[in-house]
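Need residues for this backbone.
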């Protein structure tokens, strides 16, 4: 079971909902997270259970970023709106930087999201299970 987060800017919320509907069966066995409104919209249209953090501008991006910093997030689908300025842009940049630091796959558009979900479906994320197994501080 992997930890997967969904984030979408306002003009991308319908797109992420449709994406998750299309791949709902792939997401079922995993632990799902999202920022506030995005998670609510996905849960209204699917049978998925999602742990919702605060709205992105209110700190939700940072809450997901905290999981990334602890290497506790395995995949992020973050549909960004590149044509609209975001008031919390520094939080977004910090989240993406943390993903780069920790080597967490992150998709910022549907094309990349689809490639990552197809890889997830094939089992190509097994390396993340090893990351969790050998994480420092976890005794067996």
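Answer:
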């Amino acid at each position: 079971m992997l930890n997967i987060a969904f984030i979408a800017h306002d003009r991308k919320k319908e797109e992420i909902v449709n994406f998750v509907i299309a791949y709902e069966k792939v997401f079922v066995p995993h632990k799902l997270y999202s920022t506030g409104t995005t998670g609510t919209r996905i849960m209204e249209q699917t049978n998925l259970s999602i742990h919702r953090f605060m709205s992105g501008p209110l700190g939700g991006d940072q809450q997901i970023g905290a999981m990334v910093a602890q290497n506790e997030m395995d995949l992020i689908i973050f549909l960004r709106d590149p044509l609209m300025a975001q008031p919390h842009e520094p939080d977004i940049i910090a989240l993406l930087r943390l993903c780069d630091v920790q080597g967490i796959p992150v998709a910022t558009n549907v094309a990349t999201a689809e490639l990552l979900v197809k890889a997830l479906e094939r089992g190509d994320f097994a390396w993340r299970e090893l990351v969790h197994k050998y994480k420092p501080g976890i005794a067996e």
